[in-house]
Amino acid sequence: ESSFGYLYERQRDYEGALTHYRRAIEMAPDPSQYLLSAAIVYSLAGRDTEALEYFKRALARDTLNRRQELSALTHLGRILFARRDLKEAVEYLSRARAIAPADPRPILGLAETELRGSRPVAAIDFARKALMIDSALPEAYSLIGLAYQRQGDVRRAYAAFKHAILHSRNRSQAYVRMGDLFSQHGKYNGALEQYRQALAADPKNAQA
To answer: Which residues does 71 contact at the CB level (< 8 Å), separation at least 6?
Structure first.
């Protein structure tokens, strides 16, 4: 059943995948890994309420391996962050960081949470810790740029966004953020140039 579920998941037939993963959950003596697989599919399908339930059920059994537990905790943190439940998001992301201190993803999640909570200094600190693990993380540079922008430090925000553009495979969003920075400070010609660069990198970027 789980193999069928995986095949449907790969084809983005999420309902089909969930049908088979739920059967695997019912059949298995320890359904933890299938609860995790179903949770990920619910998340991919945009059904965050069900995803939260299944991630928590998978963790509650305390039988996931290290990689699976890290995945569940990181997904939970990001879903809760998107729902603005920042306290619980920090709890799960901190647990993920404790499991894998050399993995930058939970640290970036904490940086995002701090920025959403209007704590730019803490956000910068976490983003820099992520960069100590991987110095070419465009997401970390973008978060630093946004944090400095919140503080009104245009020079440092500009430098951070430049690094984000340098290291990003899809530079379009980084150009948009640079354009927003220029626009916010009345540098409209510079903003227009950045938005043009964003559209050149991705003609379908609606924000540009």
So the answer is: 36, 40
